[in-house]
């Protein structure tokens, strides 16, 4: 699971680096987390952003992206209850995917498919299984128009509630209910509600 973990009294955050109360470990060497492995250095990332930080859309994208890390802490403190959902909607070439890549760059490779950004070309079940691996790590989806197998009215409710539907396996036993606590961001040229 990506994001926050608790083991007894210890709390740690798992991304491309495992950050704990005692030290940080590079998880990319030990685990198959190629989607998270950074392409450059933090200083290079920061220096590249510097000329653009006065633009409000850059600050908004960074804030939305970074919000995923504090959502579980706010939920634990009783300040919020639901997963945050943002939809970046607009015509083609209007900064949507670039904003998503900027958000993703906080956490790892800002690429679609082979990086931190996903698409909705997979099934709804796969979507929720993937979402269930996140607690303080954003779920970024590019181009919702690619989704053909998704009922957004129903899915938005489950996304905001932070858990998948309960289901039974073929032998009648309950399947694991996936849970998450994060920020979900979609991009698209039309509203999510127009596709329901």
Helix-strand sequence: EEEEHHHEHEHEEHE
Mean pLDDT: 81
Largest sheet: 5 strands, mixed
The unreliable regions are 24-32
Principal-axis shape equals globular
Determine the N-to-C terminus distance: 30 Å
Structural class: alpha/beta
Number of DSSP helices? Answer: 6
Question: Could you estimate the helical fraction of the residues in percent?
Answer: 25-40%
Query: How many beta-strand elements?
Result: 9
| Arrangement of strands in the largest sheet | 4-3-2-1-7
Task: Kindly estimate the percentage of residues that lie in beta strands according to DSSP.
Answer: 15-25%
Q: How would you sum up this structure, described in words?
A:
This protein is of the alpha/beta class and 196 residues long. The protein has helices at 27-30, 42-49, 56-76, 96-105, 124-131, 152-161, and strands spanning 2-7, 10-14, 17-19, 24-26, 84-89, 117-118, 134-135, 139-141, 183-188. The chain contains six helices and nine strands; from the N terminus they run E-E-E-E-H-H-H-E-H-E-H-E-E-H-E. The strands form two sheets. It has a five-stranded mixed sheet with strand order 4-3-2-1-7. A four-stranded parallel sheet has the order 5-9-8-6, sandwiched between helices. The relative contact order is 0.17.
